[in-house]
Amino acid sequence: MTTPVLQRSRRGLSGALMIAGLALASLGALVSSPLASAEEEAAAWPEDKPIVVGSKADREGHLLGEIFAQVLEDAGFTVERRLGLGQTIITYQGLAEGELDVYPEYTGTLAHAILNLDSVPPLDKLDALSRERGLRVLKPLGFNNTYAVSMRREQAESLGIRTIGDLADHPDLSIAMSHEFIKRSDGWPGLADAYALPQVPRGIEHGIAYQALRESKIDATDAYSTEGDIQRFDFVLLDDDQGYFPEYLAVPFVNAALPEKAVAALDQLAGSLDEDSMQALNAEVSTEEQSFAQVASRFIQEQGITTEQREVSGAKWDKLGTNLIEHLQLTLSALLLACLVGLPLSLLVYRNPKVSRVVLYVTGLLQTIPSIALLALMIPLFGIGVVPAVIALFVYSLLPIIRAAITALLTVDPLLVKVARGMGLTRREQLRHVILPLATPNLLTGIKTAAIINIGTATLAAFIGAGGLGEPIVTGLSLNDYDLVLYGAIPAALLAICAELLFELFERMVIPAHMRGLKAR
What is the pTM of this model? Predict the structure, then answer.
């Protein structure tokens, strides 16, 4: 019986081959015929192909993604969920590369962050520009979730701050904004210019910004106008009196080849939500501690889209076993691959100082790439899911394994090597009977270090849909639910401790006591 991760890996590899085949086929079609219409492409959708629904890591995106998934399931489609994928760059790349088929997006983000437009054009124009990229923009859900700047109500009232422009009179305020907002053209750079704001914001994960604001660690942060936590924590949204922020209408952003039956199912949601109702749904997840699936199921029933009662579980711990197995498979796959590449490579280059320095330099350079950036860069090459996550973890495992191996091989006592040579041992026999046994303690140290690094880094793989113990951490951050964060973090820490103990036990089994003492000294 295959595990979910292995199934996902196979789907990722087969999906990549399928996409490559479709690309070649489409090139041939371009030579002989004009571009196929979206309807013709939709007609070619395989009946057994699941529709992959994605979302960003924020609460509202996760909830809307679950609503999309349940509506498509009620229409008779098989749905695969890849929710909580991180920021816009990851979800858009996943959609553009064919790894996702639909995810909730906003017209302002689509115009500024994806299409790089200076303003937000009408919806039909956005759709036309998206179709040039093989994508479509469906009918709006009905609400405008615009950006805003949020403060604690009592502080804003005591300082007399009502508008964003009033912040300019208080340059000493501590402001922290989400990393994406700080960099976006429609985010902090333009906002600071429009209102002549003197503050320099710090970057902060949006999921923990409200907690920091509530505890007075910061004075202001960026917000989404429909978030349930605004009422929950009695925050106030500052008035955008210059109308800087554009309209952010929520829309299903889909693959242009999506079947028309699926498009019609999603169009049932058009106009079904306004700002107040969306904020209420978000609040149900955050304050009433209901699962995304429970809230989504009740909503589509209230809308009359389905009359069936869906069986959904609200328990947070249901997927503990699955998350743990996925995490172990990610870590062990990457570690095994790094050993298969790193150890032979070290044996090949350790005798040549120049080549070994180059190898160490290159692997060290790869280690300096921020993990979330490396995962995002993998998407155009390998899509989303298990495959890019394993490759990224493999890259991070190389340096500790190769550095420890080269150091261990070079520090074997030269006198012992000369004795072995004098005994008539060939170079291969010297390596097998003298050098490798003496180098084993430090070789294992490098592998152990790589394993522990992998266990921690693998939690970030959830941002590209690879699952593991990072999944509850990402969900917990979006919900401001620190119990759920600990649900992922504590098992990951225990795994690292277990890995340390297992390696210690293994060393005691395979390394003689006198060599373990030599290693310690």
Answer: 0.73
